[in-house]
Amino acid sequence: MLHISFIRENPQLVRDSLKKRKDREKLHWVDDLLKKDQECRRLLAQAQELRTRRNLASQEINALQKAGKDIRGKVAEVKAIPDKIKAVEDRMAVLQENIRHCLMRIPNILHESVPVGDSEKDNVVVKKWGKPGKADMPPHGEWLEQHGQADFSRAAKVAGAGFYYLKDKMALLDLALQRFAVGHLLQKGFTLIQPPLMMNRAAYEGVIDIADFQNVMYKAQDEDLYLIATSEHPMVAMFKDEVLEEKALPIKLVGISPCFRKEIGSHGVDTRGLFRVHQFNKVEQVIICRPEDSWQLHEEIQKNTEEIVQQLGIPYRVVNICTADIGSIAAKKYDIEAWFPREQAYREITSASNCTSYQAVRLNIRCQKGQEREYVHTLNNTALATGRIIRAIIENFQQEDGSMQVPEALQKYMDGIKRIE
Questions:
Q1: How far is the C-alpha of 15 from the C-alpha of 20, rounded, in Å?
Q2: How far apart are the first and last CA of the chain?
Q3: Cα gap 238→47, rounded to integer Å
Q4: Does residue 292 share a domain with residue 171?
Q5: Regions of the chain short of the pLDDT cut 50
Q6: Is 346 helix (H, G, I), strand (E, B) or coil?
Q7: Choosing a second label site near 205 at 20 to 30 A (CA), which of 275, 340, 413, 416?
């Protein structure tokens, strides 16, 4: 979230960013926040003044007692002060809760390079790679079942729609993709992390939009635990309430985990397949860094993922997400959209976000720089989500006889298998 002191010092910048996001309903929150903040600081000063008065009155009582004078008036004054302090603090607590409620919902400040737009149609293509092809084939879900590589009907029987059994060589391909992506990032100096698959709400509120708890997250019944939607979340939250040494930054992590999300596709290719499902495997990049390094590192993690997609041989384009389509956590976001020949369309497979200090403020993660402490910046980018990449491989590596060629970069992880027939 934005720190209240930032809003206090930059109210117009916050308003301008909200206008770019087409989030005008929150514009009046800025003035309301500033008024509540001013009142809260006034009450804080009042509480401090009351405590000072109580201490002075106690000293006066001691002096009066030593002088043998009447202390009843001063004693009555001292006895009344705690109730006054409590009344002030109760009012402060209400104001602070209201302030936090708003702060948790005001989105991040957009970077100046984010294109202004009204919808996803205004996202800007900044790069294309590879030659888009065509494919005359059944939907990838049907292809998987026809080739004995997945079972969606039995998965629906035991878990419902949006789940699947991945089988045989395709299950091996899923593992090969994970190993390939992890190996690529280990060579870049990343540290491999297998995170907890559940997080408590206090930690989760530090890394996501509050609305995601209702729309995206799975909650364990009667437990303060939520299944993770991506390994980015526990990897960033692992530094909650910590002060990191400047020399330890940047921290580069690659997470590998299953991910769980309520949202799934509702029609077409997403109904019976791997593209948008409730459970999937993903390799994720996370960087914790000094503020002055974050924009360079944002380009770096984007480059890392492009190298992975290029080595797999999948045509793609890079899109700079516009102001109306970007999520509340990110200050800037690139998407990689792979080419899907059957649809003759590009569709998103990865997202690279610079969240600046937004998550760090919520989680209270700071960096010690000399005698001062400042909030770190956090960045994340998908290295690959295996289900979406598998679909892209099926369509882009389709052979005339209906089989699928295994990308050369994965063959060493496939026990010598070069083709799935």
A1: 9
A2: 50
A3: 36
A4: yes
A5: none
A6: strand
A7: 275
pLDDT given at position 265? 56
In a domain, 152, yes or no: yes
Torsions phi, psi for 406 (to 5 deg):
-80, 125
CATH, residue 60: 1.10.287.40
**Total tally of structural domains belonging to the chain:** 2
Q: Is the distance from CB of 410 to CB of 176 less than 8 angstroms?
A: yes
User: Do 198 and 302 reside in the same domain of the chain?
Assistant: yes
Helix, strand, or coil (residue 30): helix
Q: At 100, give phi and psi (nearest 5°).
A: -65, -40
Residues whose CB is less than 8 angstroms from the CB of residue 233 and which lie 6 or more positions away in sequence, other chains included:
199, 204, 207, 208
- Determine the pLDDT at residue 217: 93
Residue 61: predicted pLDDT: 77
Q: Are residues 126 and 99 in the same domain?
A: no
What does the pLDDT look like over 336-367, one tens digit per residue?
Answer: 999 999 999 999 999 999 999 999 999 999 99
Q: Provide the angle, in degrees to the nearest 10, between the axes of the packed helices 11-20 and 27-66.
A: 150
| Residue 288, SS3 per DSSP | strand
Helix, strand or coil, per DSSP, at residue 339: strand
Residues 41 and 173 in one domain: no
Q: Which two tokens stand for residue 363?
A: 């989680």
Tell me which of 71, 103, 135 is where a domain ends: 103
**Pairwise CA distance, residues 273 & 387, whole Å:** 9
pLDDT value of residue 122: 96
Q: Is 316 domain-assigned? A: yes
Q: Are 64 and 210 found together in one domain?
A: no
Instruction: Supply the range of the domain harboring residue 98.
Output: 4-103
**How far apart, in whole angstroms, are the C-alpha atoms of residue 24 and residue 78?**
49
Domain of 335, CATH number, reads 3.30.930.10
In sequence order, what are the residues at sequence separation of 6 or more whose Cβ sits closer than 8 angstroms to the Cβ of residue 369?
246, 290
Residue at 217: amino acid letter: M
pLDDT, tens only, 277-286: 999 999 999 9
Does residue 99 sit in the same domain as residue 127?
no
Question: Is residue 110 one of the residues assigned to a domain?
Answer: no
Q: Which of 312, 299, 311, 226 is nearest to 262 (CA)?
A: 226
Token duo for residue 67: 């002088």
pLDDT at 83: 86
- Residue 390 and residue 174 in contact, taking contact as beta carbons nearer than 8 Å: yes
The CA distance from 242 to 366, in Å, is 6
- How far is 377 from 3, CA to CA, in rounded Å? 14
Question: For residue 111, is it within any domain?
Answer: no
State pTM to two decimals: 0.92
